[in-house]
Fold DYW domain-containing protein.
Amino acid sequence: MAHKTLVSWTTIVLGYARFGFLDVARELLYKIPEKSVVPWNAIISGCVQAKNSKEALHLFNEMKIRKIEPDKVAMVNCLSACSQLGALDVGIWIHHYIERHNFSLDVALGTALVDMYAKCSNIARAAQVFQEIPQRNCLTWTAIICGLALHGNARDAISYFSKMIHSGLKPNEITFLGVLSACCHGGLVEEGRKCFSEMSSKLKHYSCMVDVLGRAGHLEEAEELIRNMPIEADAAVWGALFFAFRVHRNVLIGEREALKLLEMDPQDSDIYVLFASLYSEAKMWKEARDARKIMKERGVEKTPGCSSIEINCIVYEFMARDVLHPQSEWIYDYLVSLTKQLELIVFTHDIPGYGDNLFS
């Protein structure tokens, strides 16, 4: 490209960031001669889209250090990053920044705030912000409905859904997922049936409806729903049915559904773990050991989960057996020390008369 404009620079930066080439994107960002918030928004947006939210917040801090004033687009992107990480303190700081700089609470910004508070476990504040937004669209309503469903406020989620319909807005597929999720966790079978009958259902909706029926003990109806599906059921749908049989202690049928799941994806470690749990809960210890043995023989390894914790507006991520943290050696030593102290407390608690004065 002979002559690079701000638009062309920004497009290239966004592309590299979106596909995970963050080092290249950052290098290009620093080469842009014009000082503008636009390319910074692009790289932050790319990080959020690539689920690299921690880096998005790092870039946001760097942008402020370089005296580049964030605009409304930057606020929305960073609130999305906070939602992904569960970084409530950072989200609150951004909200205060929005208020201090008199940003108008339009649909995009308001929806991002509702979503952030809901996903960061402050559903009361999410509902408060929702009421403050002068104009709401489908995404705004969906954010509060899904947030309420996430926190087990099933009746409130259904109430907001009803208000959304009466406002004349048309729900999207995510809205319906939120409503079905609320029905599932709240045991609202009739409401779930009604909602399901009114939508154009996709696989994820079938999975959620099977979960609604299964958790409530309507196992035959859940099976019938799968048999009559116009599309082929995937692992998520069968998994919901398996979970229902497991909850209701139906080992034989649960075993049958688990075998179907294994046929679909023999390398999915979660299925083997569920298999073993099903047998363990039924006190079928040999079968539970066999399930884990088969998993090991097939070379299937459990995918480690990633956890995060926010301390002083800094988000730390870690997983099982993680050694990437620069202080990991000290952390593991400290964990060993804590474990020994806990073992001592448990041991002394079992000695009559000793544990009573342990902390006196």
The beta strands are 306-311, 314-319. The chain is about 70% helix and 5% strand.
